[in-house]
């Protein structure tokens, strides 16, 4: 069986948000599964000395325009959150907590977080608010809040960032297909072509 696609994402990344709406369907068209991997871009920024796009002179205005443009193109609801970007550690840790129990549930959580955050309805740095996103998925809010504050989940989130950097990840979304990396939502057509080529080679 073909290897899963690896999908590295950051909850504060608008481009990750857009990729999250497409990556599973794209993979399924080529008989692949997706391994969702939440990490903090802050881990990469420590190495690259970069800053969030929306806090970088010249880039900030363009990114706001680009995200709104992509949302219109895709027919998605999108609102730049006040004070963006938020660190989002409760969301990040919550993903890893759910992922350890049920990866499919964690993916549903991630999509719901993206949808709520980029609709201006969720503060991803508020553990209680993020817990409410997990509630419909069967997570008891008090258990969620306790988990994301635990040393174990803090260490897991930190390790996820370190592992991403070790893999050469410096941006989000970051997609790896059979060892080949692709950076950015706009690389999804290239990802699709790479998958098609791999399928053709396997059946030749």
UniProtKB/TrEMBL annotation:
It is an enzyme of class 5 (isomerase). The active site is at residue 13. The keyword Cell wall biogenesis/degradation does not apply. GO terms for biological process: glutathione metabolic process; naphthalene catabolic process. Gene3D superfamilies: Glutaredoxin. Keywords: Isomerase. Residues 5-195 form the DSBA-like thioredoxin domain. It catalyses: 2-hydroxychromene-2-carboxylate = (3E)-4-(2-hydroxyphenyl)-2-oxobut-3-enoate. InterPro entries: DSBA-like_thioredoxin_dom, GST_Kappa/NadH, HCCAis_GSTk, NahD-like, Thioredoxin-like_sf. Pfam families: DSBA. Its EC number is 5.99.1.4. One of its GO terms (molecular function) is glutathione peroxidase activity. The keyword Isomerase applies. Belongs to the GST superfamily. NadH family. PANTHER family: GLUTATHIONE S-TRANSFERASE KAPPA, GLUTATHIONE S-TRANSFERASE KAPPA 1. This is 2-hydroxychromene-2-carboxylate isomerase. It comes from Hansschlegelia beijingensis.
């Amino acid at each position: 069986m073909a290897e899963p696609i690896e999908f590295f994402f950051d909850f504060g990344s608008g481009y990750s948000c857009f990729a999250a709406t497409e990556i599973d369907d794209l993979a399924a068209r080529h008989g692949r599964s997706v391994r969702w991997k939440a990490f903090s871009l802050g881990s990469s920024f420590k190495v690259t000395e970069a800053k969030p796009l929306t806090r970088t002179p010249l880039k900030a205005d363009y990114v706001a325009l680009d995200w709104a443009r992509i949302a219109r193109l895709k027919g998605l609801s999108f609102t730049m959150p006040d004070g963006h970007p938020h660190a989002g550690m409760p969301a990040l840790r919550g993903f890893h907590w759910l992922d350890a129990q049920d990866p499919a549930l964690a993916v549903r959580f991630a999509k719901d977080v993206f949808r709520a955050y980029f609709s201006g309805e969720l503060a991803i740095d508020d553990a209680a608010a993020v817990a409410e996103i997990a509630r419909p998925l069967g997570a008891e809010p008090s258990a969620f809040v306790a988990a994301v504050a635990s040393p174990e989940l803090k260490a897991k989130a930190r390790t996820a960032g370190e592992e991403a950097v070790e893999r050469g990840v410096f941006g989000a979304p970051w997609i790896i297909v059979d060892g080949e990396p692709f950076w950015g939502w706009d690389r999804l057509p290239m990802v699709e072509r790479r998958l098609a080529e791999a399928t053709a080679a396997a059946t030749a």
